[in-house]
């Protein structure tokens, strides 16, 4: 169900908005091994990363996108790298940036239900609190980095950053929304298809009563014709390039691709006919 909490005040840190009571926490992927860091070391890393994240939030609110980006990256460098992931567990959701802009259409009020889904015998062991916190912190910082790139118009970087966030939290609403928005702007066949998948995932995660569902459905409906048009455009471009390559080779023999015609054979395929003097 949607959250009934009041809107975030201007003085509240954009990455500190709490998940409303009664909302189910999103799924977080956590590593089975935190590497060589012992808990005290990791706690220090988390504390340093949190401090830098707050500094980055200040830059973000002041619309200093480059400074915010550099600070979030610095914060990420304090955290243990993500080892090989072995299990999916229920954990606390990542708190997205609330930037009060029109492109922040999908709120963190409903992050979806998650459950433990072990993938190996080793996955039966529950993660430690510090493992969950590290996964959450990485997801938050990667999504915040994606928010900075979105403001800077670096859409491919948005996709890359949000994909990293989703590796730690596959149900991170803001990361899915930002990645879909960026892929729409990239406007290639593959990126538009990816945006479709992210919007479908958002519809599964958000409750039907969420006001964001309407805009997501509208975006999803508009993507169908765009995907089809991009597919035709890129297919045509590819065929033109292949034709140019073929002509450069066949020209050595006084031929061109126009000497070869492909006609349907009635069985779902094509037959190639040689034409001596094409019109």
TrEMBL record:
TPR repeats lie at residues 139-172. Residues 1-42, 77-129 are annotated as: Disordered. The keyword Transmembrane does not apply. Residues 1-17 have a biased composition (Low complexity). Keywords: TPR repeat. It comes from the Eukaryota. This is TPR-like protein. It comes from Lentinus brumalis.
């Amino acid at each position: 169900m949607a959250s009934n909490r009041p809107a975030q005040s201007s003085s509240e840190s954009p990455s500190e908005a709490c998940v409303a009571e009664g909302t189910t926490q999103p799924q977080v992927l956590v590593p089975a091994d935190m590497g060589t860091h012992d808990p005290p070391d990791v706690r220090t890393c988390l504390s340093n990363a949190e401090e830098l994240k707050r500094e980055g939030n200040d830059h973000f609110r002041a619309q200093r996108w480059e400074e915010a980006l550099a600070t979030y990256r610095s914060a990420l460098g304090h955290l243990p790298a993500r080892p090989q992931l072995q299990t999916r567990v229920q954990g606390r959701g990542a708190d997205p940036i609330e930037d009060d802009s029109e492109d922040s259409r999908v709120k963190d009020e409903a992050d979806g239900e998650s459950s433990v889904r072990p993938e190996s015998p080793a996955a039966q062991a529950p993660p430690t609190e510090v493992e969950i916190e590290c996964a959450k912190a990485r997801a938050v910082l990667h999504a915040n980095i994606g928010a900075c790139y979105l403001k800077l118009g670096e859409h491919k970087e948005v996709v890359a950053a949000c994909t990293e966030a989703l590796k730690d939290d596959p149900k991170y609403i803001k990361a899915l929304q930002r990645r879909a928005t960026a892929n729409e702007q990239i406007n290639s066949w593959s990126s538009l298809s990816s945006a479709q998948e992210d919007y479908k995932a958002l519809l599964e995660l958000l409750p039907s009563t969420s006001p964001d569902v309407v805009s997501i459905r509208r975006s999803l409906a508009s993507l169908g014709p765009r995907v089809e048009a991009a597919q035709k455009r890129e297919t045509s471009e590819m065929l033109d390039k292949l034709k140019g390559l073929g002509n450069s080779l066949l020209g050595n023999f006084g031929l061109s691709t126009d000497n070869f015609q492909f006609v349907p054979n009635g069985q779902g395929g094509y037959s190639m006919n040689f034409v001596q003097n094409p019109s």
